[in-house]
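Blinded run. Sample ID left blank on purpose so nobody reads anything into the name before looking at the predicted structure. Input follows.
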Amino acid sequence: MFRTKRYDDETLKHLQKVQMCILKYFIKLCEENDLTYFIYGGSLLGTIRHKGFIPWDDDIDVIMFREEFEKLNKIIEKDIDDKYRFINVLNEETYHYTWGRLMLKNTVINEWWADQVDYTQNIFIDVFILDNIPNNSFKRFIHKWVSFSLNQLTMYAFIKYDNQSKLKKILQQTIHYLIKIIPISAYGIKKRCVNSYRKYQNDDCDDICDFPAICQMPIYHKTDWLPPKKAQFEDIEVNIPNNYDKVLTRTYGNYMALPPEESKWSPAPDEIDFGEY
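Blinded prediction complete.
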C-alpha cells in the first residue's frame, strides 16, 4: 500500500493522453443526453491553475449530481461505445468504491489491491457524485457520519488494507475479517451505503456533498456549482462550478500557490498497459 514508485515522464504523458480520450467520450455522452457534469478535485485545480492537467497528476476527476449520475447509468446500460465500460458500486460485485469509473477496455492499470478483486481495472476517469445533505443540523450530523461509516465499511469489506499507522491497520483488517466471518453480505453493505447517500435525494436541500470525501472536502451550497461555467482543459472546453474560486479555496486554501518541488509527483501503479492506445 505504500506506493513510492514514480512515473517516468513518457509514461505519465501517455497516460494523460489516454485519459483525455476517455474524458472526451464522457463529455460527448453528457452533451448528447443533456446531462450536467463538472470537472472536480485535482482536475478542477489543474483547469484553473494550469489550463489542463496538473503536470504531475495521473488522473481525471469529474462529478455529477445524483440524479444526473443515475441517468448516466441508465443511458450507458443501453448505449455505450464498445471500447468502454462503466462500473459502479452496484454493478460490479467486488468494486469497493462508491463512485463510478468510466474505463477504456483492453488497457490495464493495476493498483496494490488488484489481486483482491474479481475484475480487471482498465485506465479510467473517476465519476464522483454530489448528494443532498439535509438543512437540519442534527439530521445533517447523523446523515454525514452514517454515510461516511458505511462508505468505510464498503471498502473494508472487499479490501484488506495495509497502513503506516499500526492502529489503523489493526482496525481496518479486523473489520475486513469480521465481515467475512459473520453473516453480513458485503454486497448488502454496499446497497445500504448507496441508500444512505440517496436518503434526501427528493428533499428540498440547500447543500450537497461528496460523501466518500466528506472528511477532506467541504459541504457546498448548490449555487456554488450551478449554473456551470466553461473553462479550458488542455485542448477542450469543460464545465466547472459557477463559483469555482469558493470551491477551490475551501478545498485547497491558496490554490494558486505551487507546492514544494519534492511534492510534485504522483505514485505510479504496480502495472500499466496501454494496449493498442
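Unblinding after everyone has recorded impressions. The mean pLDDT is 93.
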